[in-house]
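Still learning. Any example?
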Amino acid sequence: MTTIADQPGVSTPTAPGPRRRWAATRDTVGAYVALTKPRIIELLLVTTVPTMILAERGMPGPGLVLATLVGGALAAGSANALNCYCDRDIDAVMHRTERRPLAQKTVPPRNALVFGFVLGVLATVELALTTNLLAAALAVAAIAFYVVVYTMVLKRRTSQNIVWGGAAGCMPVLIGWAAVTGSLSWEPWVLFAVIFFWTPPHYWPLAMRYRDDYAAAGVPMLPVVASDAVVAGRIVAYSWVMVACSLLLIAPLGPSGPLYAVAAVALGAVFLREAHLLRGRVRAGVEVAPMRLFHWSITYLALLFLAVALDQFV
């Protein structure tokens, strides 16, 4: 008796080869990693280690640093994945976010929701077991604030969304300090304030660049509902407050010495110059390049916190 496979010209389906299976697995893993927004996590962790060094007045134990970074990354990944789940409808509309996994339908929404919750649970348990309960509780608060307060309540309702919602991005400094000391004092709150007032001058230039995207998605970012003159004016105002907060750590008011003082003043001066240049171009009616301030703001924050860390070893 002959089978179909024995008949001339007829071939049987073959199972996917190892390379194809590996490629599919790699793409799936990559999609789930993309849900966590790794580039945002990197920026958050940049602020954690220097804060821990400041709290210790030196280098904390490597085990504690690693545990805090892992827990912080899991918490940030949880918040970002849940944000992607909540924003999947507008992500599909905006050109800036249309390639995200849920917008591309490479990850089912239910899977993304479960993934986000699992990461949050892992972050809480990991921090509670390896650091302390305060750090774990702060991580839970950060996730809840970003997902519920910012994403679900503020983002689609008010132009002040990024101002108050940005508080979630300030939480890593509190988590890092708590992991080292088991408590909170005024120094981490100063760093919290620096990041809080840094967030609008950092994000509003991006929103200016992608104003049409946000408008199409119905998200009332400030550049969507206000003129460039208003946005630029507020960027300058927040920048001045941010720089003023950064100077509070300089001796004799704070624990930082000459290296941090020079860095805070110099970096702050450049930031203010860029903010005023942006406002000047808006007032002059010439072409505005908001992404220049956006990119510099990232450099500013990284270098400022590097100075926080290095100052403790001078």
Summary: Residues 258-284 form the longest helix (27 residues).
